[in-house]
Specification:
Blueprint: H1 4-11, H2 25-31, E1 90-91, H3 98-108, H4 111-119, H5 123-126, H6 139-152, E2 157-158, H7 161-167, H8 177-192, H9 198-201, H10 203-208, E3 210-218, E4 224-231, E5 234-236, H11 244-252, E6 255-257, E7 263-265, E8 270-272, E9 274-282, E10 286-291, E11 294-297, E12 302-305, E13 310-313, E14 315-317, H12 327-330, E15 334-344, E16 352-358, E17 365-369, E18 372-375, H13 384-388, E19 406-409, E20 412-419, H14 426-429, H15 435-479, E21 488-492, H16 493-500, E22 509-510, E23 529-533, H17 534-544, E24 546-547, E25 550-551, H18 557-585, E26 594-598, H19 599-617, H20 619-628, H21 633-640, E27 667-671, H22 672-681, H23 696-722, H24 724-728, E28 744-749, H25 750-761, H26 788-792, E29 799-802, H27 804-813, E30 821-826, E31 835-840, H28 845-860, E32 865-873, E33 876-877, H29 890-897, E34 943-948, H30 954-965, E35 972-976, E36 979-981, E37 998-1003, H31 1010-1016, H32 1021-1025
Parallel strand pairs: 1-2, 5-10, 22-24, 32-37
Antiparallel strand pairs: 3-4, 3-9, 6-9, 7-8, 10-20, 11-12, 13-19, 14-15, 15-16, 15-20, 16-17, 17-18, 21-23, 21-25, 26-27, 28-29, 28-30, 30-31, 32-33, 32-34, 35-36, 35-37
């Protein structure tokens, strides 16, 4: 089928040969494309918008033919959420809690820990009413309920959000997994120690706690001292090692204490060189080995992950590492691998955690990946898949071959070994859920079964509804095409698509947007509607309702006639444009009547005529849009267009009073023949004959403007000569060095002086200044707002000082609403020359205090302000200036040039003449304040600008500084004006850090205690609680 544009042209091709008054019903049918052939299925990829008879590609392919029942619903099979037989239950990942899920699965498979947790007293669970939901409160209650669900739930996975919330963990931020393990076991140990049953109080120690001692031997007297200690896991350094034995050996190796690290020997009563090592004395039944894959990198200031391959055995003999020897001991030193915790990802702050755990009852290995649980084949641990998914790095290290009984991993970060037992007691392997917990599990299973039944019913209802819709569509779609000569109606194509799209609710048919200003079908909207048979329309309107119903009587003859008239004028426009162009080139003969036409109008008249014709063509659209609440593209253009764009013909020679413009260069004369042709397209255009005079009002205003301009120039010249020094900023009085020849100076707003100088420079373009306006420097009570000291500082930027003689001239030339002066009063009785300064009017202290308070408040409540951080070396600022910035504006560059030079440095600009008439030479006694200084901050090397807000804390600022200077927060010493900033929790506003402040940064030397650095980066709510 032809494209939409070709169908549009074909529908109106007849207008060239048919006049508007000769239009018949046949022409109306052509305009509405009634006779265009319908498309057949398989011939169109998508629906033809320009053909109202095309009913292909509107969604019918989803319903025609045989359909699978599963397409009638979007509800998954509830049985897919059911736990498979002889499998374990997974845990939902709440966002970034995969590390929590792995540890929970490992602890759940510790049968002794699970058995002891079930024995804990839980009066709330025992007395719980099964009619309401059970909500655990304590950590122990949460673990009890969670383990019971993991053991006997019918669900494929359960939600651990209750426990995670109780721990105060952020579900959107991944925490340090190794730190979480240590702190959680410590928290659980503290909780169980409060149980009344003595056998439960030491469960954590009995399962995970071993003993070692730090043994130090003095090299001088050979005295040995031991410091006993307990451990719940061994933290093994893996850097530079290949297997687990090397890691344990390094953990126990001897360390030399010498130099500054010497040991204080009590026997020698002095510091002596010594050796120190760790001695293992006893091991727990569950041995946790932490492989330290996550270390702090000082260069980047962040943690990083070590991708070192580490080999570890399935059976671990710990007897070589124990101090005590003996046959009895050796039987309690053999451990079997029980779990391997894996971290996949390139960063220590992200990635994914999974766990491989061995089932103590069957010795089968399972991979726990949040909700997904996979059983390993052949009762063997298989890490190959995890290593294949390791991060891709440029220097990919080949995985070393592992001997039988060994495994190798670059992602394992924790190994769990269980003490090997000769014969496993069946009572120890089978752990039964207590009756009070099983009752809660049964309650949850009942809810799950009810949910499964509800989902199954919803699936069935969706299938039944879909089947009924399938039958309806198959029957109705065959009735949709309108046959030649039979009655028909129009319905929106979008409604038909919604009717065939079962995912959306079907609304009533709405044809109101298709109506023209005459209340009938608009010809331009026929592409958005489809012509269907009257029989099909009766069924659709009967089932779904709506209206108005549009049949053959709604084809609008008035719209077709108007469109025919406009299109014919458009075709005539090009011919008239060529004729007018040729006629306008000829010179107007003397005696022939002429007409004034704007030059711009004459250049653009074809475009203006075309736009006017299109507006007439779209006139019915505009009326319809107002009726139905729609917006047209033309109305948007009118609102968003340039206001200076020409809207109507000859408006460029029309003055504001409606007469002929006085700008003769903007218009030209054309012949009466040219004007008659233009009047056909612009009948409402203003008409001006050759004899018509220009607007008298505009001519009078022009004369007055020239007279006012001359008066302004004369006034500016007089004022400039009277106040020449004020205009040129020469010989200005200053408060820093009070002039000797006067005891009084007058004050005016600096705004008044700036506006006056603008007028003097451009009197023809600026309005003259009539009044001084000193009242803006006064408070509502009439008092002055500034003190002498404040004017010496920042408040001087609001005022200008005048000599008494200049003040007399100002009073004569301008209206003065209030005289403001400052007087110097010397006390002749005092030999020390005591001088006081008073203002008239006097200072209003109440308003001044309020003004200062508001200023300080604004300083403490800023947002997105700039502060500067300068790095200090050896308590000295780096004061070498940075290269000039080439992005400064012209005024800024001028300010930079006028900044005074440092003492002792020559400035040729201030040493050009001997008499000082042109330039004033600087001397030691001369105040540099008289010279205009740059207000720009001069950036120094070693300094960086940061964007801060008053309500952010010092800790947040230190993090910004860390990214800017690569200095860790705990190595930063910050100060401002010699005052140290130490309170990390305080806000910058409360610490006195204001916009444009300069903060000095002194960095401490790096320390060698990596553990201290790691601790500084722990900050979760859970960590803080413990």
């Amino acid at each position: 089928m032809a494209p939409r544009i070709q169908l549009e042209k074909a529908a109106w091709r007849w207008v060239d040969s048919v006049r508007p008054e000769d239009i018949t019903q046949e022409h109306i049918d052509l305009a509405y494309r009634i006779a265009v052939s319908a498309c057949k299925r398989g011939t169109c990829r998508r629906n033809c918008k320009g053909n109202p008879n095309c009913l292909v590609g509107i969604g019918e392919h989803l319903w025609l033919g045989e359909i699978d029942e599963n397409t009638f619903h979007n509800i998954d099979d509830p049985n897919s959420e059911r736990r498979d037989k002889n499998t374990f239950v997974g845990l939902t990942n709440l966002g970034a809690t995969c590390y929590v899920n792995t540890f929970l699965q490992v602890w759940f498979h510790n049968l002794e820990l699970r058995r002891m947790l079930y024995m804990c007293q839980n009066s709330r669970a025992e007395g719980h009413n099964i009619e309401s939901d059970y909500e655990p409160r304590t950590i122990c209650e949460h673990l009890q309920y969670l383990f019971a669900l993991l053991q006997n739930s019918n669900r494929r996975y359960i939600d651990p959000s209750g426990l995670v919330k109780a721990l105060g963990l952020d579900t959107g931020q991944q925490q340090d997994a190794q730190e979480f393990s240590k702190l959680f076991l410590s928290l659980l140990e503290d909780t169980l120690s409060k149980q009344k049953d003595p056998s439960l109080q030491n469960v954590i120690q009995q399962q995970f706690c071993g003993q070692f001692s730090y043994v130090t031997v003095c090299n001088q007297c050979s005295r040995s001292s031991a410091l006993p200690s307990r451990f719940y896991e061994l933290e093994l350094n893996i850097q530079g090692h290949k297997n687990l034995t090397e890691c344990i050996t390094e953990f126990l190796k001897e360390e030399k204490l010498d130099g500054d690290n010497r040991y204080y020997c009590e026997s020698c009563q002095s510091k002596q060189s010594a050796t120190r090592r760790i001695k293992l004395h006893s091991l727990p039944p569950t041995l946790n080995l932490q492989l330290m894959r996550f270390v702090f990198d000082r260069q980047s200031g962040h943690k990083k992950k070590l991708n070192t391959f580490i080999s570890f055995p399935e059976v671990l003999d710990m007897s070589p590492f124990l101090e005590a020897k003996g046959i009895l001991l050796l039987s309690f030193c053999t451990y079997e691998l029980s779990a391997v915790l894996i971290h996949r990802g390139v960063s220590a702050y992200s990635g994914h955690y999974i766990a491989h755990v061995r089932d103590a009852r069957t010795n089968d290995w399972y991979k726990f990946n949040d909700e997904e649980i996979e059983k390993m084949e052949g009762k063997k641990l298989q890490l190959g898949t995890e290593e294949d998914l390791a991060e891709t790095v440029k220097s990919q290290t080949r995985k070393p071959k592992s001997s039988k009984g060994y495994h190798c991993s670059r992602n394992a970060y924790m190994l769990v070994y269980k003490l090997q037992m000769e014969e496993a007691d069946q009572t120890q392997i089978n752990v039964e859920v207590p009756a009070f917990l099983q009752r809660l599990v049964d309650q949850d299973n009942k809810k799950f079964e009810e949910w499964c039944s509800e989902m199954a019913d919803m699936r069935k209802q969706s299938v039944d509804k879909g089947k009924a819709k399938h039958v309806e569509v198959k029957e109705l779609y065959e009735l949709l095409p309108a046959q030649d000569g039979e009655p028909y109606e129009f319905v929106p194509v979008e409604w038909l698509k919604e009717w065939l799209d079962d995912s959306t609710a079907i609304k009533a048919i709405d044809n109101s947007s298709f109506l023209c200003s005459h209340g009938k079908l608009h010809p331009d909207r026929v592409g958005d509607a489809k012509r269907i048979s009257h029989t099909a329309a009766e069924i659709l309107y009967g089932r779904y309702g709506g209206g108005p119903r549009i049949d053959r009587s709604f084809l609008c003859g008035d719209c077709v006639t108007q469109r025919c008239h406009v299109l014919r004028l458009k075709n005539q426009l090009n011919e008239d444009y060529r004729e007018v162009t040729n006629l306008a080139k000829a010179q107007l003969k003397s005696g022939d009547p002429g007409f004034w036409v704007g030059k711009a109008s004459l250049r653009q008249w074809r475009q203006l005529a075309l736009e006017q014709l299109e507006e007439e063509e779209e006139e019915t659209k505009h009326t319809n849009c107002k009726t139905n609440g729609e917006k047209t593209s033309n109305s948007v253009k009118e609102n968003d267009g340039d206001t200076d764009e020409m809207k109507s013909f000859n408006e460029d020679i029309l003055c504001c009073h409606g007469g002929l413009s006085i700008q003769e260069t903007e218009r030209r004369l054309v012949s009466a023949e040219v004007w008659s042709k233009l009047k056909v397209y612009f009948p409402k255009a203003p008409e001006f004959t050759q004899q018509q005079d220009s607007c008298q009002q505009c001519m009078r205003l022009e004369r007055e403007g020239k007279e006012n301009e001359a008066l302004n120039r004369m006034m500016a010249s007089e004022q400039k000569s009277s106040l020449l020094n004020l205009f040129q900023e020469k010989n200005r009085p200053t408060l820093q060095k009070w002039p000797q020849d006067t005891d009084i100076l007058y004050i005016v707003p600096l705004f008044f002086v700036d506006e006056w100088r603008k007028f003097i420079r451009r009197p023809a373009k600026s309005n003259p200044v009539s009044s001084v306006g000193n009242s803006i420097l006064l408070c509502p009570h009439g008092g002055f707002m500034f003190t002498y000291d404040s004017m010496l500082q920042g408040d001087a930027q609001h005022i200008a000082l005048l000599w008494p003689a200049e003040w007399e001239v100002v009073c004569r030339l301008f209206l003065v609403d209030q005289t403001i002066s400052i007087c110097r009063i010397c006390d002749p009785t005092q030999d020390n020359g005591n001088v006081q300064y008073h203002t008239q009017p006097e200072l209003c202290r109440e308003c001044r205090e309020g003004f200062i308070f508001q200023q300080q408040r604004d300083l403490r409540e800023y947002a997105q302000a700039t502060v500067y951080v300068r790095k200090v070396i050896d308590n000295k600022r780096m004061i070498k200036e940075a290269p000039p910035e080439f992005s400064m504006s012209g005024s800024e560059a001028e300010d930079e040039k006028e900044e005074p030079k440092v003492e002792g440095e020559k400035d040729p600009d201030f040493n050009q003449s001997q008499d000082g008439a042109k330039r004033q030479k600087l001397s030691e006694g001369c105040s540099a304040v008289a010279i205009r200084r740059s207000m720009r901050h001069r950036k120094l090397r070693g300094e960086k600008a940061l964007i801060v807000s008053a309500n952010q804390t010092l800790k947040e600022l230190k993090i910004q500084i860390m990214h800017a200077f690569s200095v860790a927060p705990f190595d930063q010493n910050l100060s401002i004006d010699g005052r140290c900033l130490t309170d990390d929790s305080a806000t910058l506003g409360s610490l006195g850090v204001f916009p444009e402040s300069i903060i000095c940064l002194k960095a401490d030397e790096p320390i060698a205690d990596y553990a201290a650095m790691d601790d500084a980066y722990q900050g979760t709510i859970f960590f803080c609680q413990t």
